[in-house]
Amino acid sequence: MVQAWYMDKSADDPRRPHRGEPARPVGLEQLRGLGVLYWKLDADKYENDPELEKIRKERNYSWTDVITICKDKLPNYEEKIKMFYEEHLHLDDEIRYILDGSGYFDVRDKEDRWIRIFMEKGDMITLPAGIYHRFTLDEKNYVKAMRLFVGDPVWTAYNRPADHFEARGQYLEFLAQTA
């Protein structure tokens, strides 16, 4: 089951959990209200998983690759980690399936507060186009993830402020409808 919580305001090492005090857990229903989707799958059989294939077919996730994020495997590791942690949005959904290791996706709630989502082996998440978010490894400094896309991959991140994009406007309309 997904683990998510409101973050503290500490500027300490982003790889730490940063649980707010008092603890304020966030459930799947609240994440769905932000447009965030979550599945728990069997990462050991990702290459031949009928459940993954069903999700891909239903959601038109036609393109995939696998990325390993650690010092030994990712070129320009330090630069990329900083880039992933910059608050940004995409014009398309961001879909990630954790095959090994762990890390955190942080998303903004409707009041612009950070929610931290802990992702570990078997967790798959979809962040909607237009949501402000960021990613970091946890203190284990390792994650292997499948990236999924509808159609050809688009890697462009737009750092905040990026409110002028149509995807952001559509996302804000979605939030207004779920209020």
From TrEMBL:
Pathway: Amino-acid biosynthesis; L-methionine biosynthesis via salvage pathway; L-methionine from S-methyl-5-thio-alpha-D-ribose 1-phosphate: step 5/6. Keywords: Amino-acid biosynthesis, Cell membrane, Cytoplasm, Dioxygenase, Iron, Membrane, Metal-binding, Methionine biosynthesis, Nickel, Nucleus, Oxidoreductase. GO terms for biological process: L-methionine salvage from methylthioadenosine. Its main location: membrane. Its cofactor is Fe(2+); Ni(2+). Binds either 1 Fe or Ni cation per monomer. Iron-binding promotes an acireductone dioxygenase reaction producing 2-keto-4-methylthiobutyrate, while nickel-binding promotes an acireductone dioxygenase reaction producing 3-(methylsulfanyl)propanoate. SUPFAM superfamilies: RmlC-like cupins. Residues 9-22 have a biased composition (Basic and acidic residues). GO terms for molecular function: acireductone dioxygenase (Ni2+-requiring) activity; acireductone dioxygenase [iron(II)-requiring] activity; iron ion binding; nickel cation binding. Ni(2+) binds at residues 88, 90, 94, 133. Fe(2+) binds at residues 88, 90, 94, 133. One of its GO terms (cellular component) is cytoplasm. It is a peripheral membrane protein. Belongs to the acireductone dioxygenase (ARD) family. PANTHER family: ACIREDUCTONE DIOXYGENASE. This is Acireductone dioxygenase. It comes from Balaenoptera musculus (Blue whale).
